[in-house]
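Re-run requested by the PI after the first attempt was lost when the workstation crashed. Everything re-entered from the original request form. Ligand of interest: manganese (II) ion.
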Amino acid sequence: MAVLADLVTALRSGTVEVVDLTAPLGADTPILELPEQFGQTASFQLEEISRYDDRGPAWYWNNFRTGEHTGTHFDAPNHWVSGKDRDDISAVPAGRLVAPAVVLDVSAQVAADPDFVITREHVDAFVAEHGPLPEGGWLLCRTGWSARTTQAEMINKDDDGPHSPGMSADCARWVAEESPLIGMGVETVGTDAGAAGTFDPMYPCHSFLLGNGKYGLAQLTNLDRLPATGAVLVTSPLKIVGGSGSPARVLALVEC
Ligand code: MN
């Protein structure tokens, strides 16, 4: 098949680059914090089984414990009550794990206001400049937030709660119900703004996107290395039966 042969040639020659959008996954990886009355997700932990020692003289391996929504991860529709009868992470069709992506850059606005939210006007301006959003594609929100690698920086909490960027409820509804996209990706620990617990409805990106069978990608990095249009995303959540999401390796193919 000429297309794949051409792709292999482009990868070998460097005219197509593979950009890793995945944050390192370890014990220090920042995690979502919910209000204290709710259950909390686990951080990532390795448990050594053996390391070329009495427990296994020739081999090294670990068990691990993690939240499904820890680190760079994929939100399945059944993560939210609005999508509770929709696909779990193991049922997301493989064909949707390779998809085009566009990048909306609001990093300058977020630098000035950590509570910045993307509205329909920002998306409309993007479409006016770059053309229609891709059918079956991702909208990646470049906020610069991935430069924050500690728990405190990532959550950015004060007495009023967390402060991090996101999307307005109206825009999330439009992405979910009217746009040709399959989902949105963000640099923060979840797809919703830090203050989205106060939005109407609360956590609108989760509520609308997952409720409409769409997806979320959280804690992406290196979005500054992608073009506004033309990248192809390869996402690889674990096929956890019944799972609500999974840590994922997320790669982007980019023409140089
Ligand atoms: Mn999540």
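Saved to the shared folder this time. Residues 2-13 form the longest helix (12 residues).
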